[in-house]
Amino acid sequence: MPNLKQELVYGGGHWLLWEKKDEVIDILQRWLKELELSKTAAAL
């Protein structure tokens, strides 16, 4: 899968989005920003 990344969130369990929501949001925002930047660079 293109642009697939793996991140590890320590201390999270089965309810990761509930238990560590701020960390998950940060990870997703960084990943989306990287995708946006790579698409912008490819367009140049």
UniProtKB/TrEMBL annotation:
Protein name, as recorded: Uncharacterized protein
SUPFAM superfamilies, A to Z: alpha/beta-Hydrolases (SSF53474)
InterPro entries associated with the record: AB_hydrolase_fold
Highest taxon in the source lineage: Eukaryota
Species this protein is from: Phytophthora nicotianae
